[in-house]
Amino acid sequence: MAGLFDRFKKEDEGGVAGVERPLAGAGSDAPAGGGNYGSSAAAPPPYSPPPPPASPPPAAGGGAEAALPAGPEADIGIDALISKRVKLEEAIDHVGVVIRDLKDKRTRLVKEIEDELVDIKNLRDKLVKVREYIDEENRGIKDLTQRRTRVEEEADEVGGIIADLRARLAGIDGVITAEGDKIRSLKERVPGADPGRAT
Question: What is the distance between the alpha carbons of residues 65 and 84, in angstroms, rounded to a whole number?
Fold first, then answer.
């Protein structure tokens, strides 16, 4: 488009294509707006380039493959700009899909973490109960150990008492045996005593 404007500008500066402009001051009867080129015919008005046609709206759907008419728009990069805009829209749509997927994944992860937290709390409660049971059993075992120790001490004491009583009974039996022997000895020494009664 710039080349087209340059060509029109050059033609406007040098005159209509193929026609030379008269020099300034040539012909005293020439009007102020321009010369008469040596004839009575009026000079043609300066050429002004036509305005560029408006770019057609993009096809429905905004696809990059929409047909664009060939024209000045291609010279200034309108079609490339539209293509970039379409690609950017597609990229934005893709980013939106990715963000939605990430949100869904985060929601699932949050739910899984909440479920795991509940399971861990339940396990912790169970472990607390198990620890309480173990502590209670340890206290019971300690009490049983103390009771066994007391029973052993009492058994040892009873054993000592029994041994003492046995020793005493053995002493009494010895005394009785000795006294019986003495009585038999006395009867044997007494004349007329019945030996059978002594036994």
Answer: 12
Phi, psi of 88 (to 5 degrees): -65, -40
What is the C-alpha separation between 49 and 26, in angstroms, rounded? 28
pLDDT single digits (tens) 160-177: 999 999 999 999 999 999
State residue 81's pLDDT score: 87
- How much is the mean pLDDT over the chain? 73
How far apart (Å, rounded) are the C-alpha atoms in residues 10 and 16? 9
Residue 47's identity, in one-letter code, is Y
The pLDDT value given to residue 193: 55
Give the angle 110-111-112 at the CA atoms, nearest 5°.
90
pLDDT recorded at residue 44:
54
How far apart are alpha carbons 170 and 172 in whole angstroms?
A: 5
pLDDT bracket for residue 75 (50, 70, 90) = low
> Cα angle vertex 132, ends 130, 138, to 5°?
105
Q: What's the one-letter identity of residue 138?
A: N
Residues in the chain: 199
H-helix segments, the chain: 2-14, 72-76, 78-189, 195-198
